[in-house]
Design goal:
This protein has 357 residues and is of the alpha/beta class. It contains ten helices and 13 strands. Helix 1 packs parallel to helix 2, helix 2 runs parallel beside helix 3 and helix 6 crosses helix 10.
Length: 357
């Protein structure tokens, strides 16, 4: 039995799989277009995107604008499928990233790491970009819905609900990560209740996409049976030939065991899940403090007290220098044992899904 297609606004997504946005540089045009070509939604991560190519000579602000523009255009040349961008709400250049993505006609903007309360204000008449907030609770989904409706007469086109087993930055306090009430299944139920209310009040279908800790086709079947209409997978796509990261980054994920995956305190001010390594140990020991803030990239980062520069660390990892950086991953990264292809992953997920039905 094939997975049921996903509809977000006017977009028909043949396979209800969204590839998570992974930065700096882990999911750019190559990975995003490969996922889109398989019928899912390919996502370009915008954070620090200007540092990943020749546009890095333009400086942080201009380089990121040009970087987003070029990666969207490159992806469009490689696919006719559905493409999105992931834009963190805590970025200092959030508005630049949103405006540029809309100008380039991106299909969907996914935004989390904070509440993107003014996201609809950037919409341009005649553009059909869908707006999808990433939330970690029904409460957050409700706040966004109320603010968007009240201030812009706009309702979310979908929700991504991200549980505590996700990779990268997590929308929970460190002590809440193990709380049974924060299991993905419970969070999906909460956000489904908000979506149901939107449908009853405003007659708008708002799909709920589950994310965080999903790995197999059985996982997808189970969470969709609960009411989710799509899933978001990030780590599963890192160890693929099409992933934009360096070979060394991919190999670090393949080599990681379950015990290597730990929760760290990020300069962003949120806990994050990553492969713990020598760099992170040195940072914890106070040996990686930046001399100055070179990028001014994150609103919530305090350069005077931060243990390391997250932009530089993630850029180093993207390039393959894990001595000066680290890899963000989801809780299932230890299950990744080889470098494969996006097509093989989609085939495997569909076979596992079939077995579960």
């Amino acid at each position: 039995m094939k997975m049921k297609s996903l509809k977000i606004g006017d977009l028909q997504i043949r396979v209800p799989i969204i590839q998570g946005g992974m930065g700096i540089g882990i999911s750019l045009s190559k990975l995003a277009s490969a996922v889109a070509n398989m019928g899912g939604v390919g996502i370009i991560s915008t954070v620090g995107i200007g540092l990943t190519g020749p546009q890095n000579k333009l400086g942080w602000k201009k380089g990121n604008i040009e970087g987003v523009r070029q990666e969207i255009r490159k992806a469009r040349e490689l696919t006719k499928g559905v493409l999105g961008v992931n834009i963190m709400a805590v970025l200092t250049d959030f508005s630049d990233m949103v405006r540029t993505s809309i100008e380039e006609g991106i299909d969907i903007i996914f935004s989390g790491a904070g509440l993107p309360l003014d996201l609809p204000s950037y919409l341009v008449k005649g553009q059909k970009t869908m707006l999808v907030p990433i939330v970690s609770s029904g409460r957050a989904a409700n706040i966004i819905t109320q603010k968007w409706k009240q201030n812009y007469d706009y309702l979310p086109d979908a929700f991504v609900v991200e549980g505590p087993k996700a990779g990268g930055h997590l929308g929970f306090k460190a002590e809440a990560l193990q709380d049974a009430g924060n299991k993905l299944e419970n969070l999906v139920d909460e956000v489904l209740a908000v979506a149901k209310e939107i449908k009853e009040k405003f007659n708008k279908e708002v799909p709920v996409i589950a994310a965080g800790g999903l790995y197999t086709g059985q996982d997808i079947h189970s969470i969709m049976k609960r009411g989710a209409t799509g899933v978001q997978l990030g780590t599963r796509f890192v160890a693929t030939e099409e992933c934009d990261a360096s070979q060394e980054f991919k190999q670090a994920v393949v080599d990681a065991n379950e015990e290597d995956i730990q929760i760290i305190k990020s300069p962003v001010g949120m806990p994050g899940r990553s492969i713990f390594n020598h760099f992170l140990q040195e940072a914890a020991d106070g040996q990686r403090r930046p001399k100055a803030c070179r990028h001014n990239c994150i609103r919530s980062c305090n350069p005077k007290t931060t243990l390391y520069c997250i932009a530089d660390a993630l850029l180093s990892a993207f390039k393959g220098n894990l001595n000066d950086g680290f890899a963000f991953v989801g809780s299932n990264a230890g299950r990744v044992k080889k470098i494969t292809t996006v097509k093989e992953i989609f085939t495997e997920l569909q076979e596992e899904y079939d077995q579960a039905t």
